[in-house]
Sequence to fold (244 residues):
Amino acid sequence: MTLEGRRLVCRYGPTRALDGVDVVAGGGEILAVVGPNGAGKTTLLRTLSGEKRPDRGEVLLDGSPVSGADPRWRGRVGLVSHRPGLYRKLSVAENLTFFASLHAVPSARDAVGRALEAVGAATLAGTRAEALSRGQSQRVALARSLLHDPDILFLDEPFTGLDPAGAAALETTLRARRTGGGVIVLVTHDLRRCLGLANRVAVLRGGRKVHDGGTGAADAADLLGFFTAGGRDASTTPSAGHRS
Fold:
């Protein structure tokens, strides 16, 4: 399974949030997307997931174009964004049961229990969403993204607000899904966690990809060098066997 964005362009008025970005994420790997504020990371994630339609370019799965308007595509995708997207007056279990019904998940009650257990939030099932802390809301949002066992996970700063136990539970879950052959695209500001968790890392700067490579021989200082105008361009950087 291979997810690919080709020559992606996204504009907000006169600003190009993405300016011809190519990116590839394969099954059984975690691709981390990093870069300075305003680099286009969240726009790239939204575009790949189908939440945002690009102005130019296309998103493909195994060589075939996909669209956020296609319910079959939405059923294969799990997305965690900056918004928890929970109904405040409903309990955690009620929220997740509702979302499970949208995906026609069989045995919704069991699926909700498994998803909460996976993110270390089983004790929150009866808690109203409005009573959750920031970190607890993040755990529940992560559980929601796992309910329908998606093939592809898109995660925008998923570790924000998590305590060490929550972060450890998420890392365990992501590694297990990677081992199972899923595609995971992760936006993060945490360079050290990125290097410890991801197989590959793409660096964006000013809407362009300036680096794409494996994480094995990199360190945080190497990646930070690409955040500035003095960093090397992606055209001179190996892409670990993937098209740049």
In short: The CA atoms of residues 78 and 230 lie 36 Å apart.
